[in-house]
Design brief:
Four Helix Bundle (Hemerythrin (Met), subunit A); single chain; 125 residues; binds zinc ion; globular; mainly alpha
């Protein structure tokens, strides 16, 4: 991973994090304010890194998707801090630069991602 790309991708990830935070809040407030009022209070007082754990108890398909993404984005940011960013979580090869620019939170190289999907669709048959 060329060092020069990191600050740009970090900026993208932080923006995504803010966006997810807002999305989750507006989702809970818009459609589920009564049901989730307690959860909303908890979220307001917790660091983002605790959100996926809090949201786990309340998952609807929308929340599940956002919460997963939140975890991925945070994982990518902490990998940057540890200098491990951009390595495939399956084979540890470097993830292709263009792929990271499209989705800075991705965790797999093109080959492993493809394999994962093939295995999934095979499991469905
Ligand atoms: Zn891989």
């Amino acid at each position: 991973m060329p060092k020069s790309l990191i600050p740009e991708l970090r900026g993208q990830l932080q923006q995504e994090l803010q966006q997810l935070r807002e999305d989750i809040f507006s989702y809970l407030q818009r459609d589920h304010a009564d049901e989730f009022s307690h959860l909303l209070l908890q979220l307001e007082h917790q660091a983002l890194s605790h959100w996926p754990e809090l949201l786990r108890h309340w998952l609807t398909p929308e929340l599940e998707q956002k919460s997963r993404k939140l975890e991925l984005v945070q994982a990518a940011l902490s990998q940057m801090d540890m200098g491990l960013y951009g390595l495939c979580s399956d084979c540890e090869a470097r993830i292709e630069r263009e792929l990271l620019q499209q989705d800075p939170a991705r965790q797999r190289c093109a080959r492993c991602e493809r394999q994962l999907h093939e295995n999934k669709s095979r499991a469905l048959c």
